[in-house]
Every structure is written in structure tokens, then in C-alpha cells.
Amino acid sequence: MSEHRDLLAERRRRLFEVAAGRVTLAHGSGGKAMHELLEALVVPTLGDAELARMDDQARLDPGTLEAGARLALTTDGFVVQPPVFPGGDIGRLAVCGTVNDLAVGGAEPRALALALVLEEGLELAFLERILTSARAAAEEAGIAIVAGDTKVVPRGACDGLFVTTTGIGLLAPGCDLGPHRIRPGDRLFVSGPLGDHGAAVMVARGDMALEVEVRSDCAPLWDLVRHLRAEVPGLRCLRDPTRGGFATTVVELARGSGLAFEIEEAALPVRDEVRGVCEILGLDPLYLACEGRLVGVVAEEDVPRLEAALSAHPQAAGGGLVGRVVEGRPGRVVMKTAFGGRRIVDMLIGDQLPRIC
Where is the domain boundary, 171, 196, 219? Predict the structure, then answer.
């Protein structure tokens, strides 16, 4: 074991010395330089035994599957700028984003594949930092990174690094979450403050020299989803409000269910720091992305169970009811404003904040 560690250390030292600490085009050639990058840096940093075999595929043991169990599959690309921001970075974001896409459908995340597109000249130490963050997020989510791919493009072609993750999850028999289950009278809820991720990325860009501390909410949500599913039988539907934010997500739910939604503006949790950033920049916090929040719908009769479940889980601090499903024009979302008025809420038009994930 010690000889193996010494060999890895020597390979890593040679990699950093020969490449002067940076990614070169040779690292994407398929030859010796690429294998040194993978064997000395990428694979040891991500640290999974299945990945370490470096085959063309990962072989997964699904375990004992109950009758009626199904597999869930999702994939997502990440190009966030800057790649490091308060509360996270592109590595953590890539893992959490894919884990959460599985979780909101009720699927237990089982395995991830991670693909890198690296720009020539990227610092190897920075790449190691991102991979270390991805591994930590995967461990937090209870999932392994079992396969991957690495490509290198010329300087100026990809803005540092891009990451793509693909996830496989397992849906238990009878699990059925989705807009088709929403009924009139159901209640709309969120699991915590809105807009943290979008605001954190905007502040991190430094374009406006804003002196305010906002941290991304980037986090894996499976544990919270599992808790809610166990404690709240009347859970109808869950979504993670990423691009387009809370408002766009609610409109999607309204259109998917063919029903109308009514939102209470006064009930929407938005941190003062996020609200302040939005006021300065002319943004609407309801359209800012979240990367660690749930938007959900629950049956009216299960509201007490939902409130108890939210209060009992640390990832749901600040969450609660924010609206209801009503009879009305299918797909319409109306907000009751804090001043007693009413306004239509539509999907995001254009892009308030590009490259937030």
C-alpha cells in the first residue's frame, strides 16, 4: 500500500514539473501525458475504486431490486462563471445539481459519471481543488463518482473548465411525484430562502464592486427529500428552482398540472442581503437560481405533517407555505402582493443572470 502511495506521489510530482503546473494540449491526446494526468491527479482525487479501474464503463451492482422499482437517469452541463463563488464552486455545483435532479423525482441517487472539458493552461492545482470539492459533495450526498472523461481544448476555447455530470438513481415501487398529481386546494411550499445562489454568483463576479456577503445555497437535497417522503404521505410534487428561479418553476408546475396557482408575496422567504443586491442591480429575486432549495406541492390535509417535517430538518430552515392551487385559468400564476394588489407571474423572459450553473 505504501509503495502504491509513493508511486502516485512520484507521478503527481512529475506531472506538475513536466507540465509546469498547467494543463497542456498533450493532456487530452490519449497518450502518456493524458494517462499521467488521470492516474496522478484526476482518479486519486475523486477516489472511487470503480473509477480507478479506468475501463470504458463502470459496472454497477444494483443490489436487490423490489418488483416495480425503476431506474432514473439525468445529465447536466455546468459552465458557471466564476467557477468559484461563496458557498461552492463548479465541482460541488455539478454534483449537487445532478443529485438534486434525481432527488426531486423521488429517485435515490446511486452513481455519477463526471466529464471534464479543460482549457489549455488551466492550473493543475486549481483542477485538483475542483475535483476535491466534487468528491466532498459526492460523499455528502452518499453517492460515488464511478466513471468519467477528460478532454482538453486550446487556450481561449472554454473559459477554464466545463463539467458535465450524469446520474443514475433508483425509484422505489409506487413512487410517483409530478405535476399530474396536483389538485385544487393543494398548498405550495418552499424549503428555505430564495435566490441565494444567483445573488452569490453575481456578487462574486465583482462587476459592481458590491460589498455584501451572500453565500450560495448549493447543497445535495436527497436527505431532505427522503425525509419529506417518509413523513408526508400527501406530497404531490417536488422541483429544484435552478435556472429561472422560483417564479419560473411555479409557472412550470401550473402548466404541467393544468391548474392555477396563487402566491402570497409576504410569505416568500428572501434574505435581506439578496433583496438588497436585487434592488441595486434591478433584478427580481424570484427569478434568481437556487441550488439547494425545494419547491413543492402538498395536499391540504397533510399541511400539519409538512410543517412538522420542515421544522425537523436542518436543510429546511426558513421554509414554509407560500401559496395554494386554485380554480382558475389553467397555467396561470397570480401573486397577491404585500400591498394588497395582484399581478400575473410569468416565466423568466431573457436571462437576468447568464452562466449561473
Answer: 171
- pLDDT score for 64: 65
Buried b (16+ CB within 10 A) or exposed e, 61-75: eeeeeeeeeeebebe
Residue written as grid cell 458557498: 87
Type of residue numbered 255? R
Q: Which helix (H) or strand (E) holds 261?
A: strand 260-264
Beta bridge mates, 145: 112
Encode pLDDT of 164-188 as tens digits.
999 999 999 989 999 999 999 999 9
The 10 Å Cβ neighbour count of residue 293 is 31
Q: What's the chain's Rg over C-alpha atoms?
A: 22
E strand or H helix at 229: helix 222-231
Distance between CA atoms of 29 and 81, rounded to whole angstroms?
27
Give the span between the Cα atoms of 111 and 91, in whole angstroms. Answer: 16
pTM greater than 0.90:
yes
Establish if 226 belongs to a structural domain.
yes
The last residue of one of the domains, among 148, 171, 194, is: 171
